């Protein structure tokens, strides 16, 4: 319900909902994160250089082993004292595929 209200309120923001556990979010400042979601910035270093994408991940996904691995990688690369939004070293396309895969296995 909160996610639907958030999407309605922010209908000008480009957002694509993959599932209720994972949302591609815009980068507008001052946006409120819906209850039950954690904002994460994916930091990928592909052929085009360093890219960033902001996503919202449902807290239920944080217990998944793949997310635990990504959080450990984030701690190693950026440290435990990150300020602001949590940054994870992962290419956005790979992260999207991982989230869809985890969600489809849980069905």
List the helices and strands and how they pair.
Layout: H1 2-9, E1 16-19, E2 22-24, E3 37-46, E4 49-58, H2 65-78, E5 86-88, H3 92-105
Parallel strand pairs: 3-5
Antiparallel strand pairs: 1-2, 2-4, 3-4
What does this structure look like?
It is a single chain. This protein is α+β, with helices and mostly antiparallel strands. It has one domain. It is 34% helix and 28% strand. It contains 3 helices and 5 strands. It has helices at residues 2-9, 65-78, 92-105; strands at 16-19, 22-24, 37-46, 49-58, 86-88. The protein has a 5-stranded mixed beta sheet with strand order 1-2-4-3-5. Strand 3 and strand 4 form a beta hairpin. It is globular and about 35 Å long. Mean pLDDT is 77; it is low at 10-18. Belongs to the ARG7 family. InterPro entries: SAUR_fam. Pfam families: Auxin_inducible.
Individual helix count: 3
What structural class should be given to the helix and strand makeup?
Answer: alpha+beta
Total individual domains: 1
How far the N terminus sits from the C terminus, by CA atoms, comes to 21 Å
* Topology as a string of helices (H) and strands (E): HEEEEHEH
Low-confidence stretches: 10-18
Order the strands across the largest sheet as they lie in space: 1-2-4-3-5
Report the strand count: 5
Helix content: 25-40%
Largest sheet: 5 strands, mixed
Please state the CA-atom Rg, rounded to the nearest Å: 14 Å
Task: Give descriptors for this structure.
alpha+beta, 5-stranded mixed beta sheet, 3 helices, 107 residues
């Amino acid at each position: 319900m909160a996610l639907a209200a958030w999407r309605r309120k922010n209908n000008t923001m480009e957002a694509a909902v993959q599932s209720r556990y994972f949302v591609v979010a815009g980068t507008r400042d001052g946006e409120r994160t819906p209850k039950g979601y954690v904002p994460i910035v994916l930091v990928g270093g592909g052929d085009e250089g360093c890219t960033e994408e902001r996503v919202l991940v449902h807290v239920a996904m944080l217990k998944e082993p793949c997310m635990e691995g990504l959080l450990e990688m984030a701690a190693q690369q950026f440290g435990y004292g990150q300020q602001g939004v949590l940054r994870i070293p992962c290419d956005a396309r790979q992260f999207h595929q991982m989230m869809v895969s985890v969600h489809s296995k849980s069905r």
